[in-house]
Fold each of these.
Amino acid sequence: MAEVPTAKLNNDKEMPMLGFGVFQMSNEEAEASVQSAIEVGYRSIDTATSYGNEEAVGRAIAKSGVPREELFITSKLWIADAGEEKAKEAVQRSLDKLGLDYLDLYLLHQPFGDVFGAWRGLEAMYDVGKLKAIGISNFNTVQTYDLYYNARIKPMVNQIETHPFNQQTEAHKFLKELGIVHEGWAPFAEGQHDIFSNEVLGEIAEKHGKTIGQVILRWNVQRGIVAIPKSVKKERMEENFDVFDFELTDDDMQGIASLDQGFKTVDHNDPEFLKYLYGRTL
């Protein structure tokens, strides 16, 4: 089994550079997929309160037989629970659903609502060991710095949309300066813009005897970005995991850099999207 490199968080905790996501999976899919992912070799699993599948992920973890200390489990706080006391209660609910005593990483899922109250709640749960690392998700650079400047415990991770069509170059540089690990969701741009038939990526893949998906994940790793691909197919999980036996050249990296167009699968600055978030009940 390949040894997955790690990113060191600002509290010295090690986080695998490649994880497995369960966004938009039903409970049945999530349980089966996480079981398969762990069998393949994934040790980092990413879920969230809003995904509605924490219990299924917990069942898969329990069935895996892998020692808890070898796993890195992430979940996230929904905006309805943004507030100091509500956040602490939400963390405990996630732990109960997952059947765990602690989470390796817990994120504020969205930069909305009582962010500062919620962050104090996460800090409190970090203090008592229920959370081993805390971070944010979908925060832009201004929102990130505002929290960073005011927080007692600095954010350790920011999970943001990152793929060849939205490379987050400036955000990556900014996060690095603050000592915050950049984690990318939607590494394959949710399959949009014909990413799996892109000519530039295809030529690089052919040169290395790899698939376009493998090239994209390798590109993330070489940039120092944690990637969390998702799939319900075991053969695709195996393919996505097989990215540590080759290296992209400088020319390859420059070729991929040319694809950046700032394309977002989700626009967090769209008022209609914000209305959707606040109107969503779990």
Amino acid sequence: MRSGTVLAMALAAAMSSGMATAAHAEESEHHARAAEHFAELDADGNGIFSRDEAEEQAAQRFSEADTDGNGSLSEEEAIAMHEARREERHEARQARREERREERREGSHHAERFTQHAGEDGIIDMSEFSEHALQRFEGADLDENGSVTATEMRLAMRAMHGRRGEHRGGPRGHHDDD
């Protein structure tokens, strides 16, 4: 029973660190998309999205949507414009998903971590898996009493994020809930 509890805690810690990494990557991706979008809006590249640029882009979008060229948008033209923009956003999301899948396949740190923990046979058996889980547990058991409190887990996770150079909410290791 004790080894099952230890393994469950180690797995929970591993999963939560993966979620934090995913959240950090998602936030970074969001910032990159925002910067890319701003660069598209800033037509003259001067680092400022001006009212003139906004008006020019609105006129361009209107012109593209006004398919019959009569200077006004019918309900059909407006719906078509919105549908086209929605389809563009959908395609862009699909492309980003595919890029992330490709990145995970090619340069995945998971593959590197697998190699670190796999035995000479190139696989991870139960003893190797348990050994890694117990090492993580022992690293979190700061007072070495055979159990891990929520505080010890939080401190261990903070230390783990600091080693990877990952952080959320400010300087390394600083969390808003502390």
